[in-house]
């Protein structure tokens, strides 16, 4: 009998083919690498680096540029360059407390020079005479100022050496060594892309991309590698979103037909004309509501751009068709604010509205519109006949809460967010939603004039604030941000309000709003402020969203440099809500105490009041790791995407994703993995 060319019987186990990925290897904890003990692995964990894979995917935030290597005799003052030589002598000086200067005489065959390091006294031991060094830096008056160095071997000073996000505890140099040690495992990471797709998109292998990311031969090579890895991430995200869309295609909502009499009366009742953007939003919503497929629309617009007016329109569409509408807000304060805005309008239309939060349960059996927090859903309130649900500040909700709202029914859903998201990002985050933007606020509104002063001029700021109060206007003072806890934040705000009552705001009625107030107290406080029984509201960031008092025309933000850009923009949106010119005064610490980043943030606010523009700026300043402060677990997993640059890549990933919804394989596993966590809109 002829023997088969591989033999007749299969062996019990096939030998592993060389080059086959072993994914279990990259899942191993970092402390399996030589030289990584429990102490270091704890510090690495703080950087989010737990496994070998995390190290492999730790993206350099930049690369060292190429510099010429010079002989010491040929060094030019001020030019960044590299030298190589041998240490002759070393010394440490401590001219001041907190300052240590290490100085080493380094020689090559052309000459000798003093190399200088600041605050790295421990280096002196390593720079013993005879040590071979390669140094990058520049020649300055006092010698060669070292930026990076290699002792006995080249890596940190090489051209295009990666510079990693590091921490005070783990230096970039240390990280470079660790990544270096993890790199041989790059081939063990499975490549999720189907081969035909890789060919069509002309993408390199993932393992090659990882190698090139950490050791590029040029900046272009590093960038091409990053793009390949970003494409993976975008594709995984888009496939997940495409699946969600496909899943929903089955669901049916009530088709609500054409707009009727109630919404016509509503528009007549409004004391203003709708803006073109509002009109457009309403037209899009009407088109959605006419269909049986449940609406899934994201309505995004800046604070005060008039989203609530549009949201109420959608709710009334449900009511006039004989069903109910629900408006869900992430906090009680916000739910109450919405209730206060909506209720009078609805009263004018004869539509009963109920408020339903953890602490307030008004009678809602007859209500046609229910406004509430998630208590609305958590406590199992049966909302029969729900046809339209509006979800405010949608990024604050977890997937679970949003799912619960629509559980068992398929209402039309309008998601609202006042955090403007650049369009690229919106498509990425909410790729399963249709997006409507209200870009232009009502014309009657003048942009808030923002100025930035440092603390030593704060008395002038308060003088201006008092001038507004004396003219019968109202004001906000935002307390410094305290990170620790809501309780300490509240305590600090109390102390600050007390201080202001005795000092700058002695002659005025000052109320205090913070997150520790009971809902009833908070409601009463807001009602008093609205009724002008208080002149000033001293507040923590709880006023960030929802508070709407058009007579408040000036705001002071203390220690504004502690706040994020998006947050300051949101805070500022509390003023400028009426026709009067409004002002926002940002008080920061002294210039010397501010980081460049803080200065840029504050200047950006002075320069622009366009939320979308600021959102772009925010992305740029914060980098891609932290998106708009959203607590979206899945999104912090996106390490390689560059939101501004990758728009074309995103479009390609979206197109490719459509064909991959039912694809089984490593890609599908990654999609499952990403979407198993909280947070990605699904
Ligand atoms: P958002 O919900 O986007 O923050 P709101 O809907 O609460 O904005 O509107 C902010 C303020 O602007 C409210 O006082 C509202 O009455 C007013 N407003 C809304 N639309 C218009 C408009 N078209 N013209 C004039 N004022 C408007
Ligand atoms: Mg609003």
3D structure, described in words:
With 682 residues, the chain is of the alpha/beta class. It has a seven-stranded parallel sheet with strand order 10-11-9-12-13-8-14, with helices on both faces. A six-stranded parallel sheet has the order 15-20-19-16-18-17, sandwiched between helices. Strands 2-3-4-6-5 form a five-stranded mixed β-barrel. A hairpin with a 2-residue loop joins strand 2 and strand 3 (99-108). The longest helix has 30 residues, at 219-248. It is globular, with a radius of gyration of 30 Å. The model is unreliable at 396-402, 624-634 and 677-682 (pLDDT under 50). Bound molecules: adenosine-5'-diphosphate and magnesium ion.
Radius of gyration: 30 Å
What shape does the CA trace take? globular
Largest sheet: 7 strands, parallel
Mean pLDDT: 84
Output the strand order for the largest sheet. Answer: 10-11-9-12-13-8-14
Which structural category do the helix and sheet elements fall into? alpha/beta
- Percent helix among the residues? 25-40%
Number of helices: 24
**List of distinct ligands in this structure:** adenosine-5'-diphosphate, magnesium ion
Percent strand equals 15-25%
Detail the poorly predicted runs.
396-402, 624-634, 677-682
Distance between termini?
60 Å
User: How many beta-strand segments?
Assistant: 20
């Amino acid at each position: 009998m002829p023997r088969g060319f591989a033999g007749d019987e299969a062996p019990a186990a096939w030998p592993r083919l060389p080059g086959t990925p072993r994914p279990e290897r990259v899942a191993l904890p970092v402390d399996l690498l030589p030289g990584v003990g429990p102490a270091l692995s704890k510090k690495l964990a703080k950087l989010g680096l737990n496994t070998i894979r995390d190290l492999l995917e730790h993206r350099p935030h930049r690369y060292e540029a190429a510099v010429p290597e010079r002989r010491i005799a040929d060094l030019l003052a001020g030019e960044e360059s590299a030298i190589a030589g041998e240490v002759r002598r070393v010394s440490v000086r401590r001219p001041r407390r907190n300052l240590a200067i290490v100085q080493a005489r380094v020689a090559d065959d052309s000459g000798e020079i003093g190399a200088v390091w600041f605050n790295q006294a421990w280096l002196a031991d390593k720079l013993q005479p005879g040590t071979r060094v390669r140094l990058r830096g520049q020649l300055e008056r006092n010698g060669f100022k070292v930026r990076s160095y290699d002792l006995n071997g080249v890596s940190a000073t090489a051209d295009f050496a990666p510079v990693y996000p590091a921490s005070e505890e783990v230096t970039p140099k240390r990280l470079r060594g660790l990544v270096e040690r993890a790199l041989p495992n790059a081939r063990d990471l499975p490549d999720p892309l189907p081969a035909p797709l890789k060919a069509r998109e002309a993408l390199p292998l993932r393992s090659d991309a990882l190698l090139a990311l950490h050791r590029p031969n040029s900046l272009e090579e590093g960038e091409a590698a990053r793009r390949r890895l970003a494409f993976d991430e975008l594709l995984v995200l888009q496939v997940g979103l495409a699946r969600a869309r496909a899943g929903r295609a089955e669901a049916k909502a009530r088709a609500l037909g054409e707009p009727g009499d109630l919404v016509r009366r509503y528009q007549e009742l409004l004391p203003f004309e709708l803006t073109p953007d509002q009109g457009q939003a309403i037209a899009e919503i009407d088109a959605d509501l006419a269909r049986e497929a449940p609406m899934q629309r994201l309505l995004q617009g800046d604070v005060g751009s008039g989203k609530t007016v549009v949201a109420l329109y959608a709710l009334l569409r449900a009511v006039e068709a004989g069903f109910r509408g629900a408006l869900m807000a992430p906090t009680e304060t916000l739910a109450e604010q919405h209730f206060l805005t909506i209720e009078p309008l609805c009263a004018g239309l004869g539509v009963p509205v109920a408020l339903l939060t953890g602490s307030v349960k008004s009678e809602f059996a007859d209500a046609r519109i229910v406004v509430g927090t998630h208590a609305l859903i958590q406590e199992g309130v049966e909302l029969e006949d729900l046809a339209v649900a509006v979800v405010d500040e949608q990024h604050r909700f977890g997937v679970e809460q949003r799912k619960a709202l629509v559980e068992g029914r398929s209402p039309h859903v309008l998601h609202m967010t006042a955090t403007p998201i650049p369009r690229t990002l919106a498509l990425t985050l909410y790729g399963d939603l249709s997006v409507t933007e209200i870009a232009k606020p009502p014309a009657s509104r003048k942009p808030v004039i923002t100025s930035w002063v440092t603390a030593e001029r704060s008395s002038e700021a308060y003088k201006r604030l008092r001038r507004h109060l004396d003219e019968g206007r109202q004001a906000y003072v935002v307390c410094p941000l305290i990170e620790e806890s809501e309780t300490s934040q509240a305590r600090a705000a109390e102390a600050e309000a007390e201080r202001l009552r005795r000092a700058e705001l002695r002659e005025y009625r000052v109320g205090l709003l913070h997150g520790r107030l009971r809902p009833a107290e908070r409601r009463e406080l807001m009602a008093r402020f609205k009724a002008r029984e208080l002149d000033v509201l001293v507040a923590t960031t709880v006023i960030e969203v929802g508070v709407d008092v058009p007579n408040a025309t000036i705001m002071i933000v203390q220690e504004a440099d502690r706040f994020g850009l998006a947050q300051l923009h949101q805070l500022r949106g509390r003023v400028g809500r009426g026709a009067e010119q409004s002002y926002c005064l940002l008080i920061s610490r002294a210039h010397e105490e501010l980081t460049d980043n803080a200065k840029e943030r504050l200047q950006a606010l002075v320069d622009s009041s366009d939320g979308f523009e600021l959102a772009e700026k925010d992305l740029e300043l914060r980098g891609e790791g932290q998106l708009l402060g959203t607590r979206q677990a899945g999104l912090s997993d996106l390490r390689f995407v560059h939101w501004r640059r990758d728009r074309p890549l995103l479009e390609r990933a979206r197109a490719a994703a459509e064909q991959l919804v039912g694809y089984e394989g490593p890609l599908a596993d990654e999609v499952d993995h990403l979407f198993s966590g909280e947070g990605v809109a699904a």
